[in-house]
Amino acid sequence: MKLVYSPPSPFVRKVTTLIHHVGLNDRIELINVKTTALSVAEKARAANPLGKIPVMILEDGKSMFDSRVITRYLDELAGSNLYPKHNIYDILTLEALADGIMESAVSITYESKLRPKNEQSESWMDAQWSKVVHAVKALNDRKFQAMDEELNMGQIAVACSLGYLDFRHDGRQWRNGNSNLASWYEGMMKLPALIKTIPTD
Ligand SMILES: N[C@@H](CCC(=O)N[C@@H](CS)C(=O)NCC(=O)O)C(=O)O
Fold first, then answer.
1. 35 lines ligand 1 (CB under 6 A)
2. Residue 92 pLDDT grade (very low, low, confident, very high; cuts 50, 70, 90)
3. Which of 38, 49, 98, 153 has the CB geometry, 3.0–4.6 Å to 82, for a possible disulfide?
4. Residue range 47-80, pLDDT digits in tens
5. CB distance 82 to ligand 1 below 6 Å
6. What is the pLDDT of residue 16?
7. What pLDDT is attached to residue 14?
């Protein structure tokens, strides 16, 4: 199997964390691409018409995306039970929240890094950041029970989303007023697979 990926992407990190955690490294060849909304990598487009990563290419040549589909597939393949049946919808909801944080945070990165200054919209970036703020506050207030259960994919996704905020939006200081979540994140960052996948440019 092959994974079309890029180390800074938080969506990719969900998948690579799972791969390290369950020890599937030897079975997956990594194809590193640089792709953005404004400049799509050929290899990403060839495997996913949307041009987005992560994309898995299976042994039979079929493509699989997006991150939530790949993580479920690999979890089943490895038998790692990171989506336990008894609270699957809580876990998927937590993962969806984390993915939403990533979407808003990545879109702010694109707006601020890819577009010329005079075309950037501060109010649009503020609106995206406001989604992040509300999501982080809800996590801090422990509105999602799956955060405090055995290790699951929702928790890994949340850790990847917060790691991305540190990586690209450090100046916005998500920890302010969210010390409860900051301690939870510190605990998560003891997981070796999360340490191995800390984002880099
Ligand atoms: N919903 C997708 C989102 C993936 C995504 O947006 N990936 C970004 C990298 S962080 C990307 O490929 N951007 C290129 C683009 O938007 O064309 C997932 O969960 O995999």
1. yes
2. very high
3. 153
4. 999 999 999 999 999 999 999 999 999 999 999 9
5. no
6. 98
7. 98
Query: What structural domains and CATH numbers belong to the chain?
Result: 2-78 (3.40.30.10), 85-191 (1.20.1050.10)
Distance 11 CA to ligand 1 centre (A): 7
Whether ligand 1 lies within 6 angstroms of the CB of 197 is answered as: no
Distance 22 CA to ligand 1 centre (A): 23
Q: What is the 3-state secondary structure (H, E, C) of the chain?
A: CEEEECCCCHHHHHHHHHHHHHCCHHHCEEEECCCECCECCHHHHHHCCCCCCCEEECCCCCEECCHHHHHHHHHHHHCCCCCCHHHHHHHHHHHHHHHHHHHHHHHHHHHHHHCCHHHCCHHHHHHHHHHHHHHHHHHHCCCCHHHHCCCCHHHHHHHHHHHHHHHHCHHHCCCCCCHHHHHHHHHHCCCHHHHHCCCCC
